[in-house]
Predict the 3D structure of the following.
Amino acid sequence: MKFKKEILCIGAGYVGGPTMAMIAYKCPQYRVNVVDILPEKIAQWNSDALPIYEPGLDEIVQKARGRNLFFTADIEAGIKSADIIFVSVNTPTKTYGVGAGMAADLQYWEKTARQILDCADSSKIIVEKSTLPVKTAQAMERILNSGKYEVQFEVLSNPEFLAEGTAIADLENPDRVLIGSQQTESGLKARDELVAIYANWVAADRIVTSNIWSSELSKLVANAFLAQRISSINSISSLCEKTEADVSEVAKAVGMDTRIGSRFLNASVGFGGSCFKKDIMNLVYLCRHYGLEQEADYWEGVIRINEHQKERFVLNMLTAMFNTLAGKKICLFGFAFKADTGDTRETPALTVAGRLVEENAQVVISDPKALDNARLDTQSIKGDIQFKEDPYEAARGCHAIAIMTEWALYRSLDYEQIFNSMQKPAFIFDGRNITDHDKLFEIGFNVFPIGKPKKVHF
Ligand code: UDX
Ligand code: UDX
């Protein structure tokens, strides 16, 4: 079959893989090639065991793969034949030099730009999918337009707003698709080509266009606002614990104001994931770069509260369990940074596990999807850590359970059976407020929710 256009995506990760699968699924008239520097990752995308877990992903990959969706390791050929190139390589926080711990590390990004420049012998549209600091497109254009061929590159910004665990639903029915372009004739023409792709399944009024810098900045700001809501409610959770107010009741009352809205107000042990911290640090770095110290301090506060919330959770455990955790066995229910994903990047569970080991506790980690990542992540922690997928086995003989991830599974366990197999007095620290606290208390647990009065038998 002759395809209308050829799309390439560089970077087959959490963003690139599902996004391209959706575009291919919805647009059979486009050929979609996905490449990655890791050949083993490409092999996994071509197998029955995809490299990431995401509800609904398997089905759409199966429908499109081999039809118009192809995963290959040949980056050079992919670049040559593409009309449109999405770049979704990772842009982690810099760990060295100027801006270490704050700025985005753009080395993979620049390497990719140079690779495109080296291989491309025809004009192309380059789409920034990765989250980037404002003005990255300018740097990219400068690199791309220094080449040996008489070709033109038009750079667009098209940030991805999908959340893990709901990626397929988010891609299929997005709140909005944002496309930023230069406001030149060629910029607007390139923008329209990208709009035409999304228009295959996204309503016209949900496809928003803007200037390129607004688009780059909007992604950072969207994540900063989301994270800020969590830090806001988490800061209130501390106050609730001191005043016997209940954070869920407060969130409900506050969230019913349509100006505020009810979503993203669940108090928790803290937010994780690859984006929130990185993107806020990035925003803070940008503010400081432009001399905006007050603004930088304001956003940095969102991260500070998040770190504090994780530490507060551990200190609550320590205090509740008679000021010593040494030699006590504590089971973590969940290790993924949120439910319905195996992803553990920046997961609060890793911080909590590390701190419990520092207190000489023994830690048992349970998770339905994230145990492989948990094993890798905890390698740097020197202490007694075990891994058990079955939550009943994991909790057996433990002094306490700490719920780290809001997996639905943990709502419906037989807690009576679990209680009977544990050391007494048995504790449960619900870092996600997902269990029935009254029922747990009746069973015999000492219950410590987030931002609600504790329920203890002594
Ligand atoms: C990444 C960024 O972290 C995020 O900021 C951005 O919004 C989207 O891209 P994610 O897809 O979650 O998010 O990252 P990851 O799962 O690590 O995928 C990146 C992929 O790019 C990896 O598979 C990596 O092997 C690949 N890569 C990296 C390349 O193909 N080439 C490179 O030079 C570097
Ligand atoms: C986020 C953004 O939602 C998404 O738009 C962007 O593209 C990438 O970053 P993600 O990190 O996948 O997505 O998950 P998200 O659902 O936003 O959750 C992030 C963290 O916040 C998780 O640890 C989650 O458990 C926590 N969270 C979320 C809370 O603690 N309380 C809430 O009310 C909501």
Summary: The first helix runs from residue 16 to 26. The radius of gyration is 24 Å. The pocket of uridine-5'-diphosphate-xylopyranose (ligand 2) is lined by residues 160-164, 223, 226, 230, 264-266, 268, 271-273, 275-276, 337-338 (CB under 6 Å). The CA atoms of residues 5 and 281 lie 37 Å apart.
